[in-house]
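Re-run requested by the PI after the first attempt was lost when the workstation crashed. Everything re-entered from the original request form. Ligand of interest: adenosine-5'-triphosphate.
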Amino acid sequence: MEMITYLAKVGELTLKGGNIREFERRLIQNTQLYLESIKSKVTLRAGRMYIDCEPSGCEAVEFALSHLIGITGWAKTRICEKNIDSIKDAVMQEALFAKERGAKTFKIESRRSEKNFPLNSYELSCEAASDICEQDLLKVDVHKPDVTINIELRERCFVYSDTIKGCRGLPVGTGGKGLLLLSGGIDSPVAGYRMMRRGMKVECCYFHAYPYTSDEARKKVEDLAQIISHYGLETHVNIIPFTDVQMKIKKLASEMPEAPDGLKTESYSTLLLRMCMMKTANLLAKQIHSQCIITGESLGQVASQTVENMEVTESCSDFSLLRPLVGMDKEEIVETSKFIGTYETSILPYEDCCVLFSPKHPVIRAKVEVAQELYKAMQVDDLIQEAFEKREVKQFLVRDFVEENYGSK
Ligand code: ATP
Ligand code: MG
């Protein structure tokens, strides 16, 4: 059976000195997790990861490589023998293939760790290019070629032209565990992805206020969790029923219309909801041994996201709050959400709970003491405990997704 070899360039973990073995082990393990349902072999040597598979496994491998965190790029290669004739032959195949797709110019880049090969890298590039030039198939352009053909002479010899960008970052599982507050919007899935790229395992929780938020809104969040599990490998989403808590916030505003600072209590309702979410998330984070809580907040993006208001939510958490998007603007966030594939789902029009209960004039620079006093007046802790206990958990495993869509063993 013909075997195909993919080559992936390992990224940042090569900087990790003493820990490098652990990072490498994790990268291999993560890659294998994607590929449980196909026949494949994963090996890692000198900053390169190789995946050998049968042709029927190519789709699964390509899915894995385009979602795997920890590699800077990857390519499908031609393997050839370590002599100049087979190398020239493989390079010619690549050139013909590139020409078919419209390329006019090329360059060759050679790397060799095999030092007893008779030609050095430069000589090898020139020799491999000679036939292409003689036949006038493509023209050399070393600055802006339409195609770069790579020759890597290692324990085997690889020839490839297209390198596809990888997700970079550190392998998931090397950076602890965080609990992501996942809403149906654009920001929080991106926040989760950003932490996954720092090696963090990410679990999710979603506060659902049925029937004020619809089943579609819930489905949307589950779909987002599914998509981010393609990067995070295994994602649980805890769905926490929050209608009673929301009603309690409304009730406070009618029973106690004026807050201690003279503002309308109603203007605090979004913030009070955030505080309740944070309290509940703390219960969950403790239960699942998460080390921090992650949100999709970005400074100044909406009224509730001022530094003062962030301090208020912070005051409700015993866990560190990580806000990976805090300094990013909307355009950058949207760009990432398109790249990871959550954008189209995020912009579906189902309301999230905050919209229906949002005050006309939300407080912009809340004081921690005032917010805490209102929170205490609600006496909501029992309801929060109850909501926490009534949570439902859904699990998304990338290996199931690959098996269903690309599996072949
Ligand atoms: P997003 O695009 O992530 O929805 P947003 O710009 O709409 O964010 P907010 O609605 O102010 O901002 O929410 C700020 C953060 O609070 C969200 O990024 C998310 O982490 C969390 N959050 C908000 N609503 C919910 C919810 N219903 N369930 C879980 N987390 C939520
Ligand atoms: Mg939102």
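Saved to the shared folder this time. The longest strand covers residues 71-80.
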